[in-house]
Amino acid sequence: MIKTFNEVLNTAKTQGMKTVAVAVAQDAPVLEAICDAKKNGIANAILIGDSEKIISIASKIGMNIEEFEIIDEKNDKKASLAAVQLVSSGRADMLMKGLVDTATFLRAVLNKEVGLRTGRQMSHVAVFEIPGYDRLIFLTDAAFNMYPELKEKIDIINNSVQVAKACGVDLPKVAAVCAVEVVNASMPATLDAAMLSKMNERGQIKGCIIDGPLGLDNALSEEAAKHKNLGGPVAGKADILLMANIEAGNAMYKCLTYTTEAKNGGLLVGTSAPVILTSRADTPETKLNSIALAALVAEFNKASQKK
């Protein structure tokens, strides 16, 4: 089981170079991340966008642009579609968003002809290496699904389980996190949590162990779980934190990012190939971590298809 981002990077290196298609690649922070990924032996890149601007930015940041293929396309919509098509056709293993607005980028991802649809709900998985914890923590969904209902939460769990397994967690422990650890008919999230737990118990959701509702404290702390007499394999030992909605997830994400020394990376999954959707506020380290995570998920998907 991978426990740190150093292990994520090292494992990605051993699995061989992947190829990432970058949509609207004329963006300095993204090109810096692509350079880092290539230097670390994790991924090569095909850069789609305004070739003159890409070459100009590459020169300013000391990037040897001759090492990368460039496809000249000045229109953002066409560049996004071209990047998606490279992935759906198998020329690239994963997709990365460059200097393009998220709505335009996602429309390309969902394109009916060349997009990366699977029929599952797409969701965001953030992965954290938190000082003091002996494992990676997978947080979902902090960025994409606003107020998911039970059906969407099943897909969100399955998507996060895929990422956890790609990181070597054989049987991920999923905590359906709520404000309280008891079912309360006035709190819909606790009802969803209880149903998800029961569905998992009956084999309707496979490949993981789900418990909930659990408070955040007794999902992460064995001591807190003991104080409330909560047993079972998940309490205090959760790998995946399924948050009730985007507000809880996003607050948790930003709290970990800005008040701790945690390292992180994130992906959009539920697609036929991993999608790297980083923020301009993300550090170069976070962007590199996200590319490495995408490489692991791409390799895991490839291995799963062969079985």
UniProtKB/TrEMBL annotation:
Where's the Phosphate acetyl/butaryl transferase domain?
Answer: 78-295
In terms of InterPro entries, this protein maps to: P_Ac_Bu_trans, Phos_Acetyltrans/Butyryltrans, Phosphate_butyryltransferase, PTA_PTB
**A Pfam family this protein belongs to?**
PTA_PTB
Which Gene3D superfamilies does this entry report, sorted A to Z? Answer: Isopropylmalate Dehydrogenase (3.40.718.10)
The protein's GO terms of the molecular function aspect are:
phosphate butyryltransferase activity
- Which SUPFAM superfamilies does the UniProt record give? Isocitrate/Isopropylmalate dehydrogenase-like
Could you list this entry's UniProt keywords, alphabetically sorted: Acyltransferase, Transferase
GO BP terms, alphabetized: butyrate metabolic process
Q: Which family does it belong to?
A: Belongs to the phosphate acetyltransferase and butyryltransferase family.
Q: Show the NCBIfam families listed in the entry.
A: P_butyryltrans, PRK05805.1, PRK08190.1
The protein in question is named Phosphate butyryltransferase
Organism annotation: Clostridium tagluense
